[in-house]
Amino acid sequence: MSDSGAAAQQSAERAAARVARESYGRLVAFLAARTRDVAGAEDALGEAFAAALRMWPVDGVPDNPDAWLLTVARRRQTDAIRRRQTRTAGEVHVKLIADEIEDASQAPDAIPDRRLALMFACAHPAIERGMRAPLILQTILGMTAEDISAAFLIPPATMGQRLVRAKARIKDAGIPFAIPDPEDLPERLEAVLDAVYAAFTKGWSEIGDEVVPAMADEALWLGRLIVSLLPAEPEAKGMLALMLYAESRRAARRDATGAYVPLEQQDTSLWDDSSIRLAEALLREANRAGPTGRYQLEAAIQSAHTARRLAGQDNWRAIVALYDHLLARTHSPVVVLNRAVALAERDGPAAALLAVDILDGDRRMQSYQPYWAAIGHLRGRAGDKEGAIAALTAAIGLTADPAVRVYLHARIAALRDG
Amino acid sequence: MQYMLLIMGDEKLMNAATEVDDTGMSADYAAYNAALAKAGAIRGGERLRPTSATTSVRVRDKKAVVLDGPYTETQEQLGGFYIIDVPSLDEAIDWAKKCPAAQFGTIEVRPVWPTRRE
Question: What element of type H or E holds B59?
Fold first, then answer.
């Protein structure tokens, strides 16, 4: 097969898999919301989903994917119940799900989309923060524990156990499948967005593994889904815009040798204009009533960086001002750090080093690679060669990314020569 | 679903509460109980005597061991409980937030494991 033929086939496979995931997620959400049994819904649809992933790329996507999955799932469920003659507590649930599948397959076109409600359940404050993103990836997208564990750097068996426990918790604790009331919505939505953004950054910052760029794509897809299901929420648009700005620079982040390229040195011709345009449009819509949240501010900062590069003129004043707003809202040490780097461009490296002084005793920063890289950068600009080399060396010791390591070594070499 | 709200707090503070009347109920609790009743959510609940009045019992090798005091000494003691019936965890958390003891102690929200057929 020719390269273009293989590419076409690959893209057809991906399209078929996408439809299968879309349909699977909708059905899991529907069954789980009816029965509060996420694991049961996944079990009931698992074989049908696996069959769809296998068959649809070859045979084509059926006219009604939901009906196809339900038909296969129904057959499996009926068999399972017939096989099990003993009456056990578990059987009540199997029967419950089987009844729901039976009802749904009578009118597959009338199945409501409960995926948003399922995402709110997965990102409920009663669920451990670190498990919210993995839960959403598994229940909404049908990703396996193994694929998720690769991105989250947790052994697959451990990830599997934690997912099982989290789903049991949703059921046993009575976590609701519902869109929260307007007064709780901003906070609860933030938890959902944080989970999706966490998945995105897993796919963004780590490199080398096949599954990881796919994670960023899945997160983008979830971001679009949330925007389509909650079109009135500016923060959802803000987060999607933020992810798209980052995505637009994917090709420019590495040079020909594979070394990391910092934002200010990137070849802007490699930026993806269509992602930027989409991000700008989303941000404009989100900010119509003024920015209302963290993601809109972070996206606005990215927009300012983009404008700076495209227009070729410096707007550090605006970027620092946006960081000021973000800092007042989040009090995050990472924001203190990023603000200081922008401040160095406006007021010089001495002012920036003064601004990061408050992070000196922060233990989280001591083992945070970008902290030491930024300190090294600022000290270098302030003429403190030895201090800069010490900080950059600390950063090298903290990175797992070979591309970043190459870049940091080059910085040290430049300081030594200069 | 039924939930038990366990009122956990430093009992020295709970016992020192000044607004307590003869029946051991403060005005805040009276108001809270009235709200629970009005919402039709309450299934039961009591205030508990302090751990100094606690007796612990266990049977080992067919012999009962009776000890004075609680099972474990902890920073926070169980001071009382409610059993409520609400649609989901969100409503249970809302009621826990409104419980007067949430201001200084911790309200543990535990789903009741149904063992009787209704």
Answer: strand B55-60
